[in-house]
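Whether sequence alone determines local backbone shape is best considered at the level of individual chains. The sequence in question and its structure tokens are set out directly beneath this paragraph.

===
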Amino acid sequence: MKKPIIIAVSLYVALAVIIGLVVPKFKELSVAKSKIEAADNELKYRRDYFSLLGNISDQLNQYQDQLSKIDSAISSEMSALDVFKFIDNVGSQNGLILKEIAVDKVNSSKSIPRLKETHINFVVSGSYPSFKNFLSVLEKSSRIIQIESISFRSSGVSLKGEEIPTFFNVGIKVNSY
């Protein structure tokens, strides 16, 4: 009679030992398995994300010419001196003489936070057709230049019938970031 009790107790102890050793290992295995699944999902997400970034990069490379035009239009290193040189060059190419130029104010754009607006006033002298061509070149330039104001003064025609130069006061806004 002792034999069945010993067998039962032995089975119970063996079962308790097995449960005591196997169940914690099974729980560790389940936790490790869920961590592996989470890591696999994260890896898949990152692969998809980098694949998407690669596709976007390829698409941007197709528009490199247009992007370089935008970059030159809104320069990150635009200085007042660069704009002064540009205005002087365009003016002289169109038969105008730059008389005065000054930065009126520099402030941040209200609509685009990183964008700086530089307001410049200048005076050029020359004929009206030359000034008209000058404005046309400014409007067509790759830089984003907005003409804010134009005024002029002229003495008219001299007694000899020669045209006296007209002075054009121009206010512009140039954007940079």
Notes: The chain has a mean pLDDT of 82. The longest helix spans residues 2-62. The helical segments are 2-62, 64-73, 80-93, 128-140.
